């Protein structure tokens, strides 16, 4: 049985060159980051001077105006993991927070039923894409550190937001372990 070794090497060399060329075009997903800010709704009448509160418009169609505390109660620094989950009629974003943020989320949701958590997200190469994504109503105490919301964004935008949040969570974990 005769095998043409040279022909095999040529095919192997072409396949390796093609793999290298394709490999150069891939995006570096581990460098993408996202920003997440979760604010608490405040009473517009008791906001006093607007130095501690601001009014924002949430949702692009049928927008809702909400007065929020300027300082967020949770940020991307508190995120342990994020994912996009399938729900009836679409998708939702689910964020799992660290232990400290779990306490903050539990305290704020227990103390403020009937108010909204207002979520801001920013994603993209230079964090240019971003907007107020959701304003879920607080109906009960959230004690498990998980916040799920239907985001006012496309599935692709939600995937990019989640990818960036997970990358930030990995970087924070590495810094913590050093």
Characterise this structure.
With 178 residues, the chain is of the alpha+beta class. The chain has three helices and nine strands, in the order H-E-E-E-E-E-E-H-E-E-E-H. The strands form three sheets. The protein has a four-stranded antiparallel sheet. The chain has a three-stranded antiparallel sheet with strand order 5-6-9. The radius of gyration is 22 Å and the shape is globular. Residues 20-26 have low confidence and may be disordered.
Characteristic key phrases:
178 residues, alpha+beta, Gyrase A, domain 2, four-stranded antiparallel β-sheet
Q: Give the helices and strands as they follow along the chain.
A: HEEEEEEHEEEH
Shape descriptor reads globular
Provide the CATH top-level class.
Alpha Beta
Cα-based radius of gyration, to the nearest Å: 22 Å
Oligomer: single chain
The structure class reads: alpha+beta
- Could you name the ranges where pLDDT drops below 50 across 5 or more consecutive residues? 20-26
Largest sheet: 4 strands, antiparallel
Instruction: Say how many strands there are.
Output: 9
Averaged pLDDT: 84
The CATH topology is given as Gyrase A, domain 2
